[in-house]
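Notes from the pairing session

We agreed to fold both candidates in a single pass and log them together. This is the raw record for the first candidate, unedited. Please don't reformat it; downstream parsing expects exactly this layout.

Candidate A
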Amino acid sequence: RRHGFDGLDLDWEYPATQQDMSNLALLFREWRVAARLESLLSGKPRLLISAAVYFSSNVFNSGVYRTYSGYAILEYLDFLNPMCYDYHGFWNTSVTGAQALLYDNSSNISTSYGISSWKASGVPSEKLVLGLPAYGRSWTLKDGNQNGIGAPAVGVGPGDQGMIGYNEIVEFNLKNNATVVYDSETVSTY
């Protein structure tokens, strides 16, 4: 309140077990109760409560499958921020990948799948705020002539572990006369 914020946003990347997911649901409930009490005591509008979460309602690509509580999100949060990015990056330097693609016909690692899973878990569309990156990922290509999504790579490219800010991407593209390609199959740009 002292600094004029409208609420609180939790970013727990990422609850490691199903017990952690249950504890997160309890934390959401405790935050909601505390926000209501603070509002009553201060006479001011209740602070908003939100959370930045995995792109999907279920975490499935880390070896330990776990699911967020759709009920807790519906009941205790004002909105939810699925992080629909970082699908590909420095953790796999053998091939390039679209880090924030809308569709992926070969896997469930896509924004379309993620948002659909949140809706299927009971979170209504009006509570979902799609998180987008203001940066990209880069790779060093094995062969400069093979440069599409899924092209063979030998490591990360420019940036911090291949992470490059939007302004740096624009500068790099201008400096290197790079061709920007829109991929209609994934609805992404590289």
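Candidate B (folded immediately after A)
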Amino acid sequence: MISETKTFTDKFKLLYNNIREFHLSGKNTGIETATKYSNGVDKLISNELNLDYKSKGIVVLALGGYGRKELCLKSDIDILILYEKSKISEAKNLAENILYKLWDAGVEVGNSLRTVDDCLELASTQDATILTSLLDLRAVAGDSILHTDLRNKLNKKLLPNISQNFINKKILERRGRYEKHGTPSFLVEPNIKEGQGCLRDIHSCFWILKAFYRQIEINRFLDGGFLKKEEINIINESLEFLLKIRNHLH
């Protein structure tokens, strides 16, 4: 059992090996494997930090593939430590604690330490990268009110002002990906993340939907009139296929 091991590295390696066997058994879907791995990492981080939803002023958020619960074997783990200004010292200590443990376990970690205002300012003034990562945010441990505050301000304050510009950038990014990964040399060995019809196209669909409807809660399983049932089924079947291949490659 994970709880019987002594170090964070031991716990992470046990989780990783369990997920690897879960995948290689051939009995589970790519989505099930990615979700189980994401949930396992959630539990490890939560237990290590001892933060619950009532903790005040600090929350650990999952971003990117981790935020979407699409964590594949050997994927980077992207986290944002969101804090109130009065909690800056505690937030830095917490970040140092969990980041060093993840690095020691051999994990590639994308990390940031920000306030709500920092997030809004960076997402509105930088390129689309920061806003893109925030559109997939999900709470792992800590202050649920602070998480809700960021989510609401993204929906009501930020997206109404920059959604069309963001959508335009995503369309241009797609054209650039197609030009790069559609050349004969790339088609010999397709890029399942960046290539045409691959993972980034699925992600882009939902980033654009979230920006257009100004709701970051939209996800591939929601049937709120955003997509037809047939379209959702096609997306989920494609995602299942691509995630299974990605786990095999990893």
